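Regression test case RT-17, inverse folding.

Input:
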């Protein structure tokens, strides 16, 4: 990265931070927090699909399970905010380890079907177990204090709390994919037999990536439960997994900003077109078809490819 691009990067980062700080005074904070939670869920899917090449249809089970665990810990056990969130993410990671031990032994559609089967199992357990509340879910979850310093009852405080935690999660994903570990994951995605011939233990890397992805999805689900004070069956439904995958495709796979842009498109449509009822799904389908036809790499991916082609043309000798 040259000096100009570094300056541009820093300027864009500062502008983004300024926009995040000012956003709750312009846009409804609850909508912004919903958008961020879905963006992080989609980023966890992107980590697995875009950088490892494993297509999961079951990330809603991590998202919803963590929400239920956090809701129960905060409402019934009286845990404080960060402890409840950490417990939810840890539960999602444990479930990811259990699922991954079986799923990563298969490839392609077989891997996807195993994750979907586990997700359906978790859905029916959430429907039947007494502590989940069945079809009613866990409602009226109190917004606790954090480290005994400040209360999340204030919506503005809650917004900045969620923004900082989700920003930290995105930074972690950025560090993961640009680390030697991330390079190994890309090698596995591009040519698994060659990566194995180089001595890498493929299944261990896949399993670790799967558990990390599950923990990040659970982290998003825990935050969502505290934001909306609700953990419900919708969170563990397969449609939530499909929506996260749709967000990734629209925004762009293998990009850090793709899930963010995709969430802005999909969640905004759901929020502001809610009066159209089932027509929202049709409009989302139209958007999906347009993106697939015109933006083969997603919105962010196609934009990056355009900038790369311009840079190559500009540096080509006359």
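Golden output:
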């Amino acid at each position: 990265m040259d000096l100009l691009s570094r300056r541009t990067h820093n300027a864009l980062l500062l502008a983004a931070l300024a926009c995040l700080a000012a956003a709750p005074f312009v846009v409804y904070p609850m909508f912004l927090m919903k958008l961020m939670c879905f963006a992080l869920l989609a980023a966890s899917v992107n980590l697995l699909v875009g950088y490892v090449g494993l297509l999961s249809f079951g990330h809603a089970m991590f998202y919803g399970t963590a929400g239920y665990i956090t809701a129960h810990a905060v409402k019934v056990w009286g845990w404080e905010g960060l402890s409840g969130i950490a417990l939810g993410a840890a539960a999602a990671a444990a479930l990811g380890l259990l699922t991954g031990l079986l799923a990563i032994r298969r490839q392609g559609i077989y891997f996807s079907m195993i994750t979907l089967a586990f997700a359906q199992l978790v859905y029916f357990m959430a429907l039947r177990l007494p502590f989940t509340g069945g079809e009613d879910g866990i409602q009226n979850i109190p917004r606790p204090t954090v480290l005994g310093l400040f209360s999340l009852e204030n919506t503005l405080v809650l917004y900045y709390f969620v923004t900082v935690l989700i920003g930290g999660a995105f930074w972690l994903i950025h560090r993961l994919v640009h680390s030697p570990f991330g390079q190994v994951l890309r090698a596995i995605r591009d040519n698994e037999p060659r990566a194995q011939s180089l001595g890498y233990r493929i299944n261990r890397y896949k399993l670790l990536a799967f558990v990390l992805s599950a923990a990040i999805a659970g982290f998003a689900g825990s935050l969502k439960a505290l934001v909306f004070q609700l953990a419900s069956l919708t969170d563990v439904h397969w449609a939530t997994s499909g929506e996260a995958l749709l967000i990734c495709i629209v925004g762009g796979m293998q990009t850090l900003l793709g899930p963010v842009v995709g969430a802005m498109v999909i969640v905004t449509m759901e929020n502001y077109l809610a009066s159209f009822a089932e027509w929202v799904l049709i409009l989302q389908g139209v958007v999906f078809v347009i993106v697939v036809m015109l933006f083969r790499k997603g919105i962010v991916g196609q934009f990056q490819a355009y900038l790369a082609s311009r840079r190559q043309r500009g540096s080509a000798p006359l």
